[in-house]
Amino acid sequence: MIRWSWVGRHLDDIGWLFVEHIQLAGLALVFGFAIAFPLSLMALRWPRLYGPLLGFTGVLFTVPSLALFILLIPYTGLSKATSLIGLTIYTLLILVRNIVEGLRGVSPHVLDAAKAMGLTRTQRLFQVELPLALPMIMAGIRIAAVTTIGLVTVTALIGQGGLGRLFIDGFTRDFATPVIVGFVLSVALAVVVDLLLVRLQSALTPWHDEAGR
Q1: Could you tell me which residue ranges the ABC transmembrane type-1 domain spans (predicted)?
Q2: Which of 2, 26, 31, 100 is the most core-located residue (most Cβ within 10 A)?
């Protein structure tokens, strides 16, 4: 099913597409978190915003990916910006929901103790709330990361897509090797990234692992 001679001749191209895939997924996740974090803090500060915010990001999440990219093309063209805007949008629902629920899950008694110690609102957020909410937040980041890695392949239809371009090449020429290579590398990337994020979470929250034992 795989023509290894073709793989050998195109290793440089495959490597470049693999790097592009990582860049697109990574940037979308970073941009998504940069937008979702302040939105989540706003929803916590003004709880009435949470429902509409979750509903709006949920509607965006349900828009078919190809349709969303097509809607963006008149404004940003067949560019990397189109890919990143679309991919970032799909991370928002997952990230906002997990950040808010993680911070909401912090015990009021812990917050009262932090206030009694004289910590400011900002100090409480970064020294108390975020560390305790980190497992839930990291769970959202993991889901968003794996989802985004899969969605990157769709952007190949607008000239981007990283490993997704191998799918287009294979389907266009009715040649299975590029499709299989693209699929295997995409799945492997998602698995490796998820495992790395699990390790990162364990390193950042050792007390959480101890509590679970």
Answers
A1: 18-202
A2: 100
